[in-house]
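Aim 2 progress. For Nose resistant-to-fluoxetine protein N-terminal domain-containing protein, the working sequence is reproduced below.
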Amino acid sequence: MMKRVSVKRFQSISIRIVATILVVAINDRFECRSIDWKQIPINSTTDLQNFSLNFKENVLISNDTFQKIDDDDRIVKENFQNANNLIDFWSTINKKYYHHYLSLLNDSIVLNQLIDGNFCDDNDRIDLDLDRQCLALLKRTLLDPLQNEWSAKLLDSSATILGSGLLSGTFTNYGDFDQCLRIQASIENHQDFEDNRLTRKSDRINFYGQYCLMSFGLRKSASVIDFESDRSLRNLIELKDDRLGPHWRRKFIQNWIEINQRFRMTRGICLPSVCRAKFVENLFRKAIELLKKFELRLEYCQTKNQTQFEEWLTIKISLSLIIVFLLILITSGTLIETLQVERIKNQDDFDEQIWDRKQSILKCFSLISNGKNLFDFVEKRNEFPWIDGLRSLFTMMLVLAHSTLSQGVVELSPISPFQHFPDNFHRYSRIVSNWYLYNSLFLVKFFFVMGGFLVGTNHLRKSKSGLNRMNFFRFFMNRWLRFTPSFIGYVLFTSIMGFIGQGPLFHTKIIENYLLPCWNNLHWHLFYVHNWLDFSEMCGFQSWYIGVDFQLYLIAFPVLYLFTETTKSRTKIVWMMIVIMITISYLSVLFIFVRKIHGIPYFISVLYPQLPVARKGFLYYWTATYNHLDSYFIGIALALLCCRKSPQLNLSKISIDRLLFLSLALMLIGPLLFAPRLKSILGSEENIGNLIESYSLLDVFITTLSNLISVAGISLFFYICSNYWSAIKTQLSFRFLSNRFWLPLSRLSFTIYLLHVPINWFLIHQQRHPQSSTEFELVCRCHH
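Predicted structure tokens for this construct:
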């Protein structure tokens, strides 16, 4: 029977590999080109033996055990076929590695080429001295880590090579970020080092802890899967070769290949601050040179004294000035209103009218006025009070979806912050109640229906009262002035959250992809056309909604203009335009699905987060304006029906209740129609590659039907509530929705929608350890 290497043995081998390469590096002499490297005596074998004696009881296997491994005892065989050309990667993982590093240990010329070819120029003398100091400190750390507090903390702060949970998808291990940065030491060379060959006797090594994040993954050239190419998606080969070992091992390899398309394996390591990032990266790259399909990348290194976002100095200064200016306005406005209130109480004689006119701008920033407006429960409400409760509930549900199972905030990150990825996603997606969070499109459709309904009713009410004269420029500016102050505040808030954060993922190289679009593409955002940009070019993935809403508002101008005067001819044109817009929306989506020009389909990418970001799918099926013409113009149609002069349908109380029940049933059923998940529930789950390439017209029909049913339920609910409110307002549920305590939350819903994503993003990147796939685990705890 073929021998099998256990996970524990594999971990031991891997630890030995890394330890060996460090010992190789620190035991060779490092002088520049004037020295004949071939004449230098090699003492690394002795050092390796000492190192093995210190650690063989805990983590390393002995040489005798290594020699017993035969050619058949490998984790993956060399004849591994059709798995993205990974033959070189998966072969020789055990025995050949040992012989490779043994030969490297006895060949100082290789090390000479590594250092001499990169660092021994005349201008790099200082860098060479730092490299000597780095190697001296690493040698002391490996040979006797418990001799000094700093060496013990260097090892203790570094993540283990494999870590725990790897087989379940925990590909990130941060180590101890805070402990590493707190390390500080000063070492006299002649006192602390028995072997002074690596450093000069006059040297005094002063250093801090330096935290580095290193990632491992397949080279891009190793992957032949082009998920985003038009109609040329390739299948992921299902591994069925019995020689790869038992089923769980083949499944793990298969999952790793898929996940590598999006996230790389990442480890945090703690090094002395004298170790240059380029030097360390080259050492580790040399160590894994046999893995030709394997790529190592040092994401960043930082110490506690290094300032983040140094190249953002201009933005930081501008942001600080804006914040100071806003604080002055808020303070001045609040003080002025406080003084005004005191004068009114004291009945001082002053011209209140002139005071208000001069100070009206500052009073807009007053905390007193804004607090009163926010919590004003006496002010006359609109004629649809149930909208306040409904808007608040759907806003909270959308926040819950984005904070738990549908976390788009990590789409641009090259590093996975999750543990058990994507196992937890798949496990939670099989819980039916969670489908409302996965398929959150019905929540978006609700807000577009509500937006069209409110725009239509407000416009028609003003037109009937003679207060609204249709002018496109005024129509445009009303919307622009409503959105822009809030959006600028959102950009400022997002930038502040990025600058004040600290953690393993709060580094310029990791988070700048999220922050840069807010400033580089600010002109696109202020004209509200950013929803047509690539996913990575938006300032927050949720901001696409504002762009779509703004464009739909402008597209609706002709319809509202023609309906101002309700002549029969104009009414027919208006209804024809509404029907055309709704038809365009659904035909566009069907065309994209049938022609398969969207890369990864939306309904697949949501359920399989290990896939790379579905850029085309996100644009063509989600953020493109035509996708939401149906919801917005259905909302306008409902407004026209609500405000028409003809009498309503004469429905009985029972009929109204039945229609309400039907609308709720449709809203509940729509999100459950998820074609891939329905297949898995029925026991016919497919390979991901096959699912992407060969989804049928039935899948397209089910997905489109889900959208239709959700919109139909929402529309029917709006129709009943707006036209038959007097018949249902006494019901307990509608008394709950129309209660005044919803007013503050309803008024803040737009702000909550904008800010909840950067807050969630901030919390995720603040973490010091891999987290569950649900940030707050609110949903999953209910099912444990």
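The longest helix spans residues 313-346. This observation will guide construct design in the next reporting period.
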